[in-house]
Amino acid sequence: MAEEKTQTGGSWEDLSQPDDSPEPHVEDRDELNGEPGEDESTAAEENTKDQQDKSSPDLLQMLKAAESRWTPQDQDGDGPEAPRAGTDELVTEALKTDMQIQLTDQKQEFNKRQTKTGRRSLSRSISQSSTDSYSSVCSDSSEDETSPRGKDQKTSKGLTDFCIKNIKQAEFGRKEIEIAEQEMPALMILKKRAGGEKPLAGAKVVGCTHITAQTAVLIESLVALGAQCRWSACNIFSTQNAVAAALAEAGTAVFAWRGESEDDFWWCIDKCVGARSWQPNMILDDGGDLTHWIYKKYPSIFKRIRGIVEESVTGVYRLYQLSKASRLCVPAMNVNDSVTKQKFDNLYCCKESILDGLKRTTDVMFGGKQVVVCGYGEVGKGCCAALKALGAVVYVTEVDPICALQACMDGFRVTKLSETIRHIDMVVTCTGNKNVVGREHLDKMKNGCIVCNMGHSNTEIDLASLRTTELKWEHVRPQVDHIIWPDGKRIVLLAEGRLLNLSCSTVPSFVLSITATTQALALIELFNAPEGRYKQDVYLLPKKMDEYVASLHLATFDAHLTELTDDQAKYLGISKHGPFKPNYYRY
């Protein structure tokens, strides 16, 4: 799954001052912003006064010299002064000369200031702009890329059962989690309502998801509901190191950091699962890697596992394969296809976060760009809507005639990738499949084409075909690589083909609250279900729970539901308290 990052060639940072160069003084920053500091303002006033003192006598002397040339005959003593021949020309010449003197002095003074401070400050400002566009939590571009596996770290309570980048970032990570909590009302309500009952008391949840501020709110909610948790990351680029530090400081055994290698990735999962003194009985997975690792290395653990909760289309696909082959040992809950995940997280989250990820990494302008979105599921629908809204010309590729027809009815041109690839500015994959963009497509792309993936797995772009001796990889900035062909053509690859939004930006906390609450309820349901309710198969969350999750979020919008009368409920043949739609209903 994970692949080692290659960083060859130059980078944007090569153009900047080294990191240990001194920061610009406050006056320098003000000067660059066009707002002089107090000392500088005083100096400027004195300088202006000096210039006036120097230039004014010259101007007066010129005017006196011009006046001496006037003849007495040109004046009439009894009447008003007659026009003086050549006076206007002389005054104009004097003013021009004075202006040149002032401009010359100002230019020399400006060059002095620029030489002292401005050039250094401006150079640093330009170079920093490429990295400062990242949030500090997400990019961690200032940190070294060495693995912390051999690093001895302790929390303030002396705990050592974790492996993260830097435990000293815990305070900052805690602030990020607190901010996310404000936008995740359902989990806060769930903690308050069920916290006293502890419905997950005795649950030992091993998790493998993105480790972000939003996921941290979920993990700590599970702990508040009675669970013990051990966690690793499902993506080598999405971990927010400060958040991981805050989780470790709070007592959660977390093994993850941003920029893991392939070996690090599986090592972290193994540390979560293979602890001698701790055996899980619940699995919360995102992508299926954790489940795969347990099947491969620790199959005996499934004797104690009560259920699996899977969030992604990739992981769900693997579960259905296991079920079909009669190899699924425990019940599994398919969260990805629940209404609250499909219609909210997949659609609205991707609709907003794709633009954020592309802007932070490329600074691209979307207006007029030719974009191909591969796949028109809920993720594809969100991506297309966002790109179209900013003026991009959007094409869609699809294998499913129903999704293709939806794309046509929404105003998008449905085409084959091979038909349009030569003039495309940007390719976005979101199919959940493999090798959607192959080497034959990459070879035909025009110079500067941006290639990225909004699906969970990095299999959608054929990266293996790009790792050849004929092609040069140039690492330009965090999560941005240029792949250079022998003729000089280059394409821009983002996040090495991994999930764009969580690798290159952040995602809206509110919509993740919907998914996280669904995951929490799925864990509660599987853990507390009586024996025999769920067999060794893959299940969808009951419709009643989907509706409950949605209802918890309505108060944020001050929304008020209409209630059915008894007569209306009888007419429809449903309970007035729900569920309001049959399981086969497609929202």
Describe the 3D structure.
This protein is of the alpha/beta class and 587 residues long. The protein has helices at 26-32, 38-68, 87-132, 136-139, 170-182, 185-194, 213-224, 241-249, 262-273, 289-297, 313-324, 339-362, 378-389, 401-409, 417-420, 439-444, 500-504, 509-528, 543-554, 566-572; strands at residues 204-209, 228-233, 253-255, 282-285, 307-310, 332-334, 370-374, 393-397, 413-414, 426-429, 450-453, 472-477, 480-484, 490-494, 538-540. The strands form 2 sheets. It has an 8-stranded mixed sheet with strand order 9-8-7-10-11-14-13-12, with helices on one face. The longest helix has 46 residues, at 87-132. Mean pLDDT is 82; it is low at 1-44, 47-57, 70-87 and 109-142.
Question: What's this, in brief?
Answer:
The chain is an alpha/beta fold and 587 residues long.
Write a concise keyword list for the protein shown above.
587 residues, alpha/beta, 8-stranded mixed β-sheet, 7-stranded parallel β-sheet, 15 strands, disordered N terminus
Give the averaged pLDDT, no decimals: 82
Strand content: 5-15%
For the largest beta-sheet, the strand count, sense and barrel status come to: 8 strands, mixed
Strand arrangement across the biggest beta sheet: 9-8-7-10-11-14-13-12
From the structure provided, what is the oligomeric state, counting identical versus distinct chains? single chain
Global shape: globular
**Which structural class do you get from the secondary structure elements?**
alpha/beta
Q: How many helices?
A: 20
Q: Please count the beta strands (DSSP E, at least 2 residues each).
A: 15
Kindly state the percentage of residues in helix. 40-55%
| Rg calc | 33 Å
Show unreliable segments: 1-44, 47-57, 70-87, 109-142
Intertermini distance: 33 Å
